Amino acid sequence: MNYLGHYKREKRPTTIYRLPVLMLMVALAVVGCATAGEQEEKDASPSEEVSLRVSGSGTALPLVEKLAEAYSQEHPEIGFQFDPGTNSSGAIEGLLAGNLDLAVANRPLEEDEAEEPLVYSTFAQDAVVFVAYRNEKVEGLSTQQIQDVYSGKVTDWSELGGSAGEIVVLDRDADESARKLVLVPFMDDRPVEARTVVLDRAGEMVEAIKTTPNSIGYSSLGLILKEQDPNLQILALDGVVPTPEAVEDGEYPWYLTFGLIHNDNILEEVREFVAFASGPEGRRIAEENGYTGI
Hints:
Blueprint: H1 14-44, E1 50-56, H2 61-74, E2 78-83, H3 88-96, E3 102-105, H4 111-114, E4 118-133, E5 140-141, H5 143-151, E6 168-172, H6 177-186, E7 196-199, H7 202-211, E8 215-220, H8 221-227, E9 232-234, E10 236-237, H9 244-248, E11 255-263, H10 268-277, H11 280-288, E12 292-293
Parallel strand pairs: 1-2, 1-3, 5-10, 6-7, 6-8
Antiparallel strand pairs: 3-11, 4-8, 4-9, 4-11, 4-12
């Protein structure tokens, strides 16, 4: 706007006309400086919060939530939206469809997924442990005994040294990582022929064990430790108590590796969080929560 246009140009003595013009020029200069200062302040202000959309494995997602909580304390401009309603495969599909920024998996990429423009970064390991509803007489089992239970050969706790009671055998669906990558090789080609109750999600398995007397199942060590429920009894296997240290030392061989997956044309914010999760601080947080850092 031309502010000078608001002044009526009347004929006045020269000495009287120059003073308002001079004052107006000074005022405009002040306004200009203020506007520039406001713009500089605006440019220097923090950018709007970036919210990363995350979903994936029910066993791995709780650890990522812990990592995100710690990361946001140092980077308050980064937010996270967690969708717990998927699994590893579903999250990868969501990633490819553009609905997620980060997928969390408890397994490596499958052959068809590896052909996509995806980046996979490991960040932790989690023991898969056999867990029973609290039974003071049975603190551990052998590989043979658990194979006998899942094959249907052993059906009562009294056959394993416990109090009499029919064993309630809990299992996961055929496509679940803990079943494909742990239980199936653990059975060493022996088919699962026991009458089982099949659970769809990791949380459902934990809930079923702690509320079902005489039950046995298998689950994430991290999830079991998080529950801190006295009814959840982690069973030693062949005399080895499963711990993160036992996994790291190679004494306990049954575990899953967690990975963070993203598109190769990712946001810088995603790249920085993945570096944090797979770095020293991420390892410390993983170990504090019952997982094995990588």
